[in-house]
Amino acid sequence: MSDYDVDLFVIGAGSGGVRASRVAAAHGAKVAVAEEFRVGGTCVIRGCVPKKLLIYGAHFAEDLKDARRFGWNVPDCGFEWTTLRDNVLGEVDRLEGLYKNTLDSHKVEVIPERATVTGPHELTLASGRTLTAKYILVATGAWPMLPDVEGAEHGITSNEVFHLDKCPERMVIVGGGYIANEFAGIFHQLGTHVTIVNRSGTLLRGYDESVRDRLLQISMTKGINFRFNAEFEKIEKNEDGTMCIRMKNGDPIACDTLMFATGRRPHTDGLGLENAGVALDEKGAIKVDDYNKTSCESIYAVGDVTNRVQLTPVAIREGHAFADTVFGDNPRTVDYGCIPSAVFSHPPLAGVGMTEAEARNKLGTVKIYTSDFRPMKNVLAGREERALYKMIVDATTNRVVGLHMIGPDAPEILQAAAIAVKAGLTKQDFDDTVALHPSMAEELVLLK
Fold first, then answer.
1. pLDDT at position 342, please?
2. 196, 176 in Cβ contact below 8 A?
3. Which residues form the catalytic set?
4. Is 72 in a helix, a strand, or coil?
């Protein structure tokens, strides 16, 4: 008999926590998971999944217009936000059910309460019940941050945006990262007048400069407004529910909805980690080693709460590696090199490996290959919007060290191309591959 109530207690039933629970249980562990909100976590409940569904819905605005150029007699169409919203939330409900079924089928106990750490092997639930565990895994993710400005409480974040009562006429989105640009594209397509307000002069820091500059150009052409190097003074809410955003260095902005997309902070507040001597960094993230172990021998952490790479597939891999290491007698770590990422903007962009600036700083001599073209569909649709593909090559070894692109289906194309970059293939390997014609992806093997 074990000295503990369970072998593994997981705090948080998001992507990383669910994967760790399922795999640990498959290895024979007795597992319990505490989730104070909904099973599925940020990605499934209020993140990448419902956001991608909104993106699909928003795309019909352009697709319906384009259809006329392709011979379809499409009338002027109205849009109902509540229909899209409710259908998306219904799909979220369905997916949550599937996640619950997965845990149930692996005999993982799901406890719908908040859990806090009260010792290296002890947890206390919101109901007052205590449990002991041989190992504890913290997988509580991250939480949207609000700026320290008067009136910030009148705004919303990506947590609440999926539940809006109506599609706003005027929307201000604060931030310059992927969340800001994705929701700007969504609501602009749905007919909202969108303004992005950013405290710096750069969008999408970390992505290749050529690609992010192209997105800014296209977004401005579409009619999205931008305020760069902006400083807030205060946010005022009027009696009719509208807002006035007063700036220290510019004209005030009137809007119906204000959304903050100013970053996400590891969700460690109030977890009681200090009771077990778990060390945090200056941003509140849990410090872990290569095997996801914290400074406490019995406590581990995976996913956004560690603030290593805030991506769902990374959290899943970390959770799987943890379970294999601790319960599967198969010590494994996660390789963080060449992780592909995408921004599902309008149009989307994606990248893997080093940017041009990173490659020049690290390698010194590089070769850059680009293709700047108008996709065939855009030509017939009468759209001037151009795609841009960019390949960064180590001039010494001829190895492809980075791929970056913006254009229709860029994330779908990049996922396969990322395998080649991860495998260390050369520019010649790309050149030796016969093009699949006619396709946009063929540009990758035709770059000159």
1. 97
2. yes
3. 437
4. coil
Measure the CA–CA gap between 322 and 300, rounded to whole angstroms.
Answer: 8
Question: What are phi and psi for residue 393, nearest 5 degrees?
Answer: -125, 135
CATH topology of domain 347-445: Enolase-like; domain 1 (3.30.390)
Residue pointed to by tokens 């909904």: 38
Residues 6 or more apart whose Cβ sits within 8 Å of residue 27: 323, 324, 327, 328
128-178 pLDDT, tens per residue?
A: 999 999 999 999 999 999 999 999 999 999 999 999 999 999 999 999 999
pLDDT over 80 at 1, yes or no: no
Identical fold at 152-262 and 347-445?
no
Q: What is the CATH number of domain 6-144+265-327?
A: 3.50.50.60
Query: Nearest to residue 209, comparing CAs of 417, 425, 404?
Result: 404
CA 107 to chain centroid, in Å, comes to 30
146-153 long-range Cβ contacts below 8 angstroms, 24+ apart? 146/260, 146/262, 147/174, 147/232, 147/260, 147/262, 149/232, 149/233, 149/234, 149/235, 150/233, 150/234, 150/235, 151/234, 151/235, 151/236, 151/237, 151/243, 152/235, 152/260
Distances, alpha carbon 3 to alpha carbons 6, 132, 185, in Å: 9, 9, 54
User: Residue 237: is its pLDDT beyond 60?
Assistant: yes
The pLDDT tens digits for 174-196 are 999 999 999 999 999 999 999 99
DSSP per residue over 291-349, as a string? TSB-SSTTEEE-GGGGTS---HHHHHHHHHHHHHHHHSS-------TT--EEE--SS-E
Integer Cα distance of 28 and 425 in angstroms: 40
The mean per-residue pLDDT over the stretch 426-442 comes to 97
Do residues 292 and 322 make contact, with C-beta atoms less than 8 angstroms apart?
yes
Give the dihedral sign, CA 424/430/433/439.
positive
| Residue 13: count of CB within 10 angstroms of its CB | 30
pLDDT tens for 311-365 read 999 999 999 999 999 999 999 999 999 999 999 999 999 999 999 999 999 998 9
- Per-domain boundaries in the chain: 6-144+265-327, 152-262, 347-445
**Spatial separation of the C-alpha atoms in residues 350 and 342, rounded to whole Å:** 4
Q: Whole-model pTM?
A: 0.94
